[in-house]
Amino acid sequence: MTDTAYFRIKLIVFALVSASFTNVYITQPVLPVLQDEFAVDLVMVSFSISGVILGIALSNLPFGMLIDRYDIQPIVLVGGTMVAAAGLVCALTDNFWVLIAARFVQGLFIPALTTCLAAYLAKTIPLASLSVVMGSYVSATVLGGLGGRLLGGWIHPPLHWRYAFITASVFILIATFMAVKWLPKPAKDLSVNKTPVSFVSLLKRKELFLIFLCALGSFSVFSSVFNYLPFRLEGAPFNFSTESITLVFLVYITGIFMGPTAGRLSNRFGSGNTLLLGSGILAVSLLVILMQSVVAIVIGLIGVCMGFFMVHAAAVGALNKKLTSGHGRANALYVLFYYIGGGLGITAAGFAYKQGGWNVMILLSITMLIIPVLTGLSERKQN
């Protein structure tokens, strides 16, 4: 692969993954606004996020099988078109349940653009460069998550949150057509796996199963914190506006740099040590954001981003380094566990928040960190 082709792949994948994740979190900074506009409670309005996550969780395995058998281009074309179309429905509807249904459809087709691309990279990029490239892939998820939050939070005040969906739909259509036109096919004929690896056999491998659990545990923590952050900041003693809440989400920028950095740390010190370091940073940062101080919360959220994306990038890199086949299925399982963790985390944290407030929710999140810690200890033994 030439340097030009290598750069083009990274650029296209970065654009497509960023566009995909823009759609996932687009309603997060305006959840209180949606709650008032549709007259629903806190847990119900969170379905505008968890509905997407549920869709992603359900469709990951089928798309993981498809990418092990077929070329990336038609999968991306269908996925990108459906995500954009559902986004336009979100922009137009006045019915809360139609909004949730359209968000669910977006979730069903996002794996065509994320899980399938991760498997494509694992089959296309040389092994020596894989950790760093997967780190860049994670950085694209960060930029997309931040972009969606900024669209939802900053476009709403002068116009309306609905325009954020229109912008995101246009963005993902452009990225989709770029990918279909310019993503090269792998040099070898990998479109059909003659001896496909089953999902069950992947789950039976202890070292892979722990990585899948690591995705579940770490994302349950991260998604809980950022999903209920707007409610925390909207209330006393902070009383933030929607624009101010959206500004706080700029801490997400930290993750853009942590993806490639975590890849390099894993190459140098091992994935186990990187997982343990990221988990430690996460734990300390969660304690910091318990403080009733804007400065402490911002510092703590920066640490949460650093720790989470360090864990996430190290886990993705470790997973793909262990594979010789079945990349699509393995990455599908990883993302399945990842979003199951997000969905369960948001739901459980919502009830914890309603019953005990922010502090109880954060303490619940801290207990979940035992999972990435155990994964890191296991990885250290294998290195």
Automatic annotation (TrEMBL):
Localization annotation: Cell membrane
Name of the molecule in the record: YNFM family putative membrane transporter
UniProt source species: Cocleimonas flava
GO molecular function: transmembrane transporter activity
Domain of life: Bacteria
Domain Major facilitator superfamily (MFS) profile: 8-383
Pfam families in the record: MFS_1 (PF07690)
Membrane-related topology note: Multi-pass membrane protein
Record GO cellular component, one term: plasma membrane
InterPro entries xrefs: MFS, MFS_dom, MFS_trans_sf
Record bears the keyword Transmembrane helix: yes
